[in-house]
Amino acid sequence: MKNFLIIAAFLINFQGFGQTGKTVSDSAKFNKYVLQHSSSFTFDGQKPEGKGWTILEKQFADNQFVAWGEYHNSPLISQLSTYALETAAKNGFKNWCVETSPFVAGELTRISKMKDPAGEILEISKDKGAYGTFPFFKTKEDASMLVTANKHNFKIWGIDQEYQMAFTYCLEKVYNAQPPKVKTQYKAVYDSLLAKWWMPKVKLLDSLKNGIAQKDLKMILEDIKISRTIYYEDNSLMRATLMKNNFYHYYDRTPSKNEKVFFKMGANHLAKGLNLTTHLYDIGNAAYELTQRNKTNFTNVFFVNRFTTEKGVIIDDLESEYNEYPKEFLKLYDKEKWVVVDLRPFRVRYKNDKTLTEDTYQLIYKYDFVVVSPEVMK
Predict the structure, then answer these.
(1) DSSP per-residue letters across 83-132
(2) Residue pLDDT, tens place only, 307-324
């Protein structure tokens, strides 16, 4: 009985302390960690300067896989990635994984070896609209990455689907590589495919595929078939599976299981755990789990863009009702600097008290770094 009274008294005192002690909100914890674990760098198109860049560079020394989750079509991120490729090469990276099809990766490799890669990229993208023929590779800044990749003998891994914008380019490559007899025989099929290039008929793709001899060109047509299905069904699971299969196709042919890879892709694909948008296990999680098996390391970087321009009007994502990025990170914007936040120390026990937005909680556990860009996207 005496022992019971002692325990009861202790519990009462403990509860009283808990009630009178000051509760620290999740937002207060977040703000504290931001102050302690943020840095920055400047970048004017020449070499980046500052502690934030030094931290990003160090990741290439510390990890087998480094994943940069970009917002697409940014000339500044392409320029920054050129310097990242330089750093990666110094740290033993030989492979660059990009968000293109295997065929387009081969074309990019070919272009990277040309005398004027920028001129070739611009010519291929000419009159092809905002996305170009090869999405994410259509400007002189994008071409500069290819020049650097070639300089350091990177192998370019294209692990994604074939994009619709490249369908005509692919079909032309396949058809023009045929001998005159095959061209004549399949001219009507080819013309019909081009007539509805954005959603070509499977029967026609199979007809052309069965009529040619080259295995690599057959694969191009098969990739168009797969991509057609992904587009038609809006099938994110099929796309994520394709990315992982293509990645392992490259990875399984490397000399060592510890071969280093630099990923530059859309940020959502590179999450640890579930993709933020599709809620599927995507290529980022596959790469992360592979490094766990290899007993190596994986790090991912989430790039945040606050301002965009639409029809001459600047749009502020922080003020948007349906913001694309977490507001807590958008508030860190600095028009003069790139702000780098190391999220790894943030993984303390948050109470999920709703003082942070849900997408902030998600980012903290799915990514290692956030980089807030000063760029105003056009």
Answers:
(1) HHHHHHHHTT--EEEESS-HHHHHHHHHHHTSS-HHHHHHHHHTTS-TT-
(2) 999 988 999 999 999 999
Measured CA to CA in angstroms, residue 171 lies from 75, 129, 199, 217, 287 at distances of: 29, 19, 12, 9, 32
Give the span between the Cα atoms of 20 and 9, in whole angstroms. Answer: 17
- Please say whether the beta carbons of 44 and 79 come within 8 A: no
Determine the Cα–Cα distance for residues 364 and 358; give it in Å rounded to an integer. Answer: 10
**Interatomic CA distance for residues 282 and 366, integer angstroms:** 12
Nearest to 102 by CA among 66, 134, 70, 144: 134
DSSP SS3 for 28: helix
Structural contact between residues 29 and 361, judged by C-beta atoms closer than 8 angstroms: no
Report whether pLDDT(249) > 80.
yes
Single out the residue of 329, 322, 320, 261 nearest to residue 290, CA to CA.
261
| Cβ atoms of 159 and 247 closer than 8 Å | yes
Phi and psi (nearest 5°) for 356? -115, 155
- Give tens-digit pLDDT for 101-117: 999 999 999 999 999 99
pTM: 0.91
pLDDT band at 130 (very low <50, low <70, confident <90, very high): confident
Q: Where are the beta strands (DSSP E) in the chain?
A: 38-41, 65-70, 95-98, 155-158, 261-266, 298-310, 313-316, 338-342, 369-377
Tokens of 339: 């702000």
Could you tell me how far CA 330 lies from the centroid of its own chain?
19
- Tokens 């933020």 map to which residue? 276
What is the rounded CA–CA span in Å between residue 249 and residue 138? 26
Question: Which residues, listed in sequence order, are joined to residue 238 by a DSSP beta bridge?
Answer: none
The DSSP string of 278-331 is T-SB-HHHHHHHHHHHHT--EEEEEEEEEEEEETTEEEEGGG-TT-SS-HHHHT
